[in-house]
Each structure stands twice: as structure tokens, then as C-alpha cells.
From TrEMBL:
GO terms for molecular function: ligase activity. It comes from the Bacteria. This is Lipoate-protein ligase A. It comes from Salmonella enterica subsp. enterica serovar Urbana str. R8-2977. Keywords: Ligase.
Amino acid sequence: YRADKLQETCEALLVDFPEQEKELRELSAWIAGAVR
């Protein structure tokens, strides 16, 4: 289970779905917090 890979995926999704940036950033932050 690699949080950095999930965060890279979120970053990649921002390119495809810029209108979802807020949700993706929240998800990325949640992922980062959940795996610590």
C-alpha cells in the first residue's frame, strides 16, 4: 500500500479533471493522513 503512488495518481487526475481539484486535493490530504 503506497500512499505516494496514490498521491501521484491524484496529481495525474488533476490534469484530466481540473474542475475536481478541490475534491482531489482533499482526497490526497486524507490519503496522506490515513497512512501515517
